Amino acid sequence: MQKRLVLNQQQIQIILKRFCHQLIENHDNFDNTVLLGLQPRGIILLDRIVEELEKISGKKVPAGYLDATFHRDDFRRRDFPLKANETKIDFLVEGKKVILVDDVLYKGRSVRAAMDAMIAFGRPQKVELMVLVDRKLTRDYPIMPDYFGIRVNTIDTQYVVVEWASQGQPEDAVWITEKEQK
Q1: CATH class of the region 3-72+86-178
Q2: Which end of the chain has the lower number of beta carbons within 10 A, N or C?
Q3: What is the model's pLDDT at position 86?
Q4: Which NCBIfam families match (predicted)?
């Protein structure tokens, strides 16, 4: 299997710091802003951003985990049942500016489902999207990130793999790999 490195650990760290500074610039004091990590892979990125934001700003940043499994348009079309993840939101999003955080934006289906799931916690004033990797040529829905780490041109025969040291990988990295041909 061919594997091409697109972001190494140092580059990812630079992107995380850039995200934090952009958020601080755009969301004064986080008084009316919350961050939601999309389960399962967006929460790792969210946790890293919140940790860095709190270090830089000295403020507690409201953050939670959002699972959109049962809001997906392909939920009943699978050969096997999907397993839900934990939604952990201990605040209302009513009237708040919400930043949805995910690792990779692919077709836009997960983000669309997340917006449906988020409404159960109130109607936000505004919703923004932050992703580490934007696969810009593969969208099914007209969804674009407000914040992105890197944009890559990929085709349907490729995967974007995000590896995190916190999950047992040697270091943080983003790879593009080819799907195995059958």
Answers
A1: alpha beta
A2: C
A3: 74
A4: PRK05205.1-5
